[in-house]
Amino acid sequence: MNKAILGWLSALIMMTATPQAQAFENRLEVTGIFNVGFSLNARNGIPLSLRLRWLDGLPFALEANVHVPYGVGAGLLLDVYRGEHLRVHAFDVGIFVPIAPQLRLTRPDIDRDFDLWTGLGIEWNYRRSETVAVDWRVFIADPSRVPYYYGAFCKPIYLDALKESQLWIGYVKRF
To answer: Quick check: 150 and 158 in contact, CB under 8 A?
Structure first.
């Protein structure tokens, strides 16, 4: 995973160093998001995110986030609607890695290396470069490991993931 992140960062740095950088910058939108995360399981935190979007017809956004104090994540967002003041993304998927086993966002008693997350969100642009965002995320215990070890007992684990989903409300700044 670290090689993939370094690859993306290297590609972005190289693109901004080329003569076509000016045209590229007009198509790339960078947003920083300060969220407050709420959950029924009392694992509330402060998710900080950085999103990169290409505005030339590609409906995707890349997201990297730090969920203070729990861990780090990365994902892909799919914009299903883009209007002048409203943006809706759904079918979002990503990976979350806790910084310590006891700091998992759902079911810290279940041993695993990472969680997959899925979700959706809405961004409302109330000023030219400022937005309010609401995101809903479900953190799912590693599906390549948990069913193998827990068998039929994994169903309650995944149902708990839905119950312990997170709602993030945030302030977005576009650069």
So the answer is: no
